[in-house]
Design a protein that fits this description.
Blueprint: H1 4-14, E1 20-24, E2 37-38, E3 48-49, E4 53-56, E5 66-74, E6 88-92, E7 104-107, E8 111-113, E9 119-122, E10 132-133, E11 144-146, H2 154-162, E12 167-171, E13 175-181, E14 185-186, E15 195-196, H3 199-209, E16 213-220, H4 224-237, E17 240-244, H5 254-262, E18 264-269, E19 272-273, E20 277-283, E21 286-291, H6 295-313, E22 323-328, E23 332-333, E24 340-350, E25 353-358, H7 367-372, E26 375-379, E27 384-385, E28 390-395
Parallel strand pairs: 5-6, 13-16, 13-17, 14-15, 17-21, 19-24, 22-25
Antiparallel strand pairs: 1-12, 2-11, 3-10, 4-6, 4-7, 5-9, 8-9, 18-20, 20-21, 22-28, 23-27, 24-25, 24-26, 26-28
Length: about 400
């Protein structure tokens, strides 16, 4: 067996670097900015009001209450056709540009308009700039809006739209193919000795959770020709390929035979549980991950190896899930076997501290416990963690 860290370094060192491209703004959500974005414009581009109310000269409100003449109404999208002079006020709606002469806004709730609408009583004294959004208050020309490496979310996209940036240089969204192998797997009703394929759907969901486009390469029987055809289809159309099943030492593990023939692969027995068997290498320059067939092993192997590798290919600076220290609520037992165990746990956070408890059955076939888990407790080789002991946890959500 090889240490976990050695296997991880082997995988990460052989994944290609991220590729940048120019993408339309509405297609960049979840992608990483490949270069810094600067603005040539001010945001807001003109002084405008943050409130419905009256644009006034602040000096005219001294000694309030005061009575001012109403000289017009200004809605958002309009420009005033005259200045606000001494003793005057202009009705103004949120977002409308400040009229020349006015330097403050009195919110409508602090005013009373005469019956004929020609006069307004201002109840409060206001300072210069009251409820006024200044030019460039958010962004100024030449300012860096977002640094390279920023993961672009909805608010980032809104900012980019506000400065007229309709395309962005980002790291390419990956296409990741997923296939399952095994004569025992079916999609419909199982016959005796068969089970439904769960790995493909789970792995596709995991890659899509990354903001990656998942490509279903199908369910392939234990047949060398069919497996080779599926893998070749995947590497021809995808940036990475995930297979599940057929990476152990059995006589019918044809995935190993095929990948050895068409790729530059390394077959590893990693000193971890679950997910000890792992294959990784390049086929026609495309990373191929051979994950175990047991459902929990497949998902844990994805979390430990494929997920960080794909995030590195997406250009993320932080490729790992967060790790925290927690207190065991109940013993997390194991036996010494030379491996690091990743135990599925339920995570709670209370009074500034994390606690964890077993999510249930820890067998590599017990997928329901994986579904209930919030984290993976990292148990070094030994006898486990006693009740109340400290344990490192990888947070899954």
């Amino acid at each position: 067996m090889i240490p976990f860290d050695e296997a991880r370094v082997f995988v990460l060192d052989r994944c290609p670097p991220p590729v940048s491209e120019r993408v339309a703004l509405r297609g960049v959500r979840g992608l990483v900015a490949a270069e810094a974005v600067t603005t040539a414009e001010s945001v807001p581009p003109f002084a405008n009001t943050a409130m419905d109310g009256f644009a006034v000269r602040a000096a005219d409100t001294v000694g309030a209450p005061v009575d001012l003449a109403v000289i017009g109404t200004l809605a958002a999208g309009m420009v005033a056709d005259r200045d606000v002079g001494p003793g005057e006020a202009m009705r103004i709606m949120t977002g409308a540009p400040m009229p020349d002469g006015a330097d403050a806004v009195v919110m409508v709730e602090r005013t009373t308009v005469s019956v004929d609408g020609n006069r307004v009583a201002v109840e409060v004294e206001v300072p210069v700039g009251n409820h006024v959004r200044g030019v460039g208050e958010d962004l100024r020309p030449g300012q860096e809006v977002f640094a390279a490496g920023t993961v672009l979310g909805p608010a980032h996209i809104g900012v980019l739209a506000s400065i007229g940036c309709r395309t962005v240089t980002v790291y390419q969204r990956l296409r990741v193919g997923v296939l399952s192998t095994g004569d025992e797997l079916v999609e419909g009703t199982p016959a005796p000795g068969q089970i439904r394929d769960s790995n493909r759907d789970a792995l596709l969901a995991l890659v899509e959770e990354l903001g990656v486009t998942g490509i279903d390469l199908g369910l392939v029987p234990d047949d060398e020709e069919a497996i080779e055809a599926a893998v070749r289809e995947g590497v021809a159309s995808c940036d990475a390929v995930l297979t599940s099943g057929g990476v152990s030492m059995g006589d019918f593990d044809y995935v190993k035979t095929v990948l050895d023939r068409i790729g530059d692969m390394r077959w590893m027995q990693v000193a971890i549980k679950p997910a000890k068997p792992l294959a990784f290498g390049l086929v026609d320059g495309v990373p191929v991950f051979g994950l175990p067939g047991n459902p929990v092993s497949s998902m844990v192997s994805f979390e430990l190896f494929a997920r960080p590798a794909l995030r590195s290919m997406l250009g993320h600076g932080r490729i790992d899930r967060p790790r925290v220290m927690a207190v065991a609520d109940g013993p997390l037992e194991r036996r010494a076997d030379g491996k690091v165990h990743f135990v599925r746990v339920v995570v709670d956070y209370l009074d500034g501290a994390y606690t964890v408890a077993s999510a249930g059955g820890q067998g590599s076939h017990q997928l329901s416990a994986m579904a209930g888990a919030d984290g993976l407790a990292v148990l070094p080789d030994g006898v486990g963690i006693p009740d109340g002991g400290d344990v490192e946890v990888i947070l899954l959500r």
